[in-house]
Amino acid sequence: MRWWALSATLYRKWGKDASGVDVADLYQELTLAAWTFVSQWDATRGTTLEQFVVYNAMDKAKKWLHVQRAAKRSGNADGNPSRREVCSDSIKRNVGVIESELTRFDGYREAMSKADEKFGCIIHSLARTNSVTMTAREIYKSKERRREYHLCSLEHAHRVVRSVLKRLAS
């Protein structure tokens, strides 16, 4: 049998779309499938051994190749396009979008670090007092902390301290 010719045919049709696949891989898949289907042949079906083995081996190798090229296998898998990796040209087109997202992320990260500095004194006070109530009173008593946390009442100070504890727990 001309398995090399059959594997070359499959490679010409779909193999170039599959990264890391060459003709030798297809040859190996074809011969392995041929050995499998020889034992499954039934003479009562009205087909020759050669026709049965070649058809089924080609079908199995073709399906393997479609998986390698990441084509959708529903419907007509032969006609479905490959889903290749993103090429560098398409990434270059989106550089402006990516840079703006990074700038926005840097601003978010800066705001979060300021928030962490604010909550650092609450954490320090909690460690010192071991009490949510005492920490809330201590923070609310300081005019500077009241302005910094925008506290309007002692209950609001309790809620801020509890939210810091929840944040620490998660």
Protein model, in words:
- The protein has 8 helices and no strands.
- With 170 residues, the protein is mainly alpha-helical.
- It has 2 domains: 3-83; 107-169.
- Helix 1 runs parallel beside helix 3, helix 5 packs across helix 6 (132-141) and helix 6 (132-141) packs across helix 8.
- The longest helix has 35 residues, at 95-129.
- The two termini are 65 Å apart.
- The mean pLDDT is 77.
Comma- or semicolon-separated keywords:
single chain; 170 residues; mainly alpha; 2 domains; 8 helices; rod-shaped
Category from helices, strands and their pairing: mainly alpha
Specify Rg, calculated over alpha carbons.
33 Å
How many β-strand stretches? 0
How many domains? The number is 2
* Percentage of residues in DSSP E strands: under 5%
Shape: rod-shaped
Q: Report the helical percentage.
A: over 70%
What are the secondary-structure elements, in order, as H or E?
HHHHHHHH
Tally of helical segments: 8
Provide the residue-averaged pLDDT.
77
Provide a concise account of the structure shown.
The protein is mainly α and 170 residues long. Helix content is 72%, strand content 0%.
Layout of secondary structure:
Elements lengths: L2 H12 L8 H16 L10 H20 L19 H6 L1 H35 L2 H10 L1 H7 L4 H16 L1
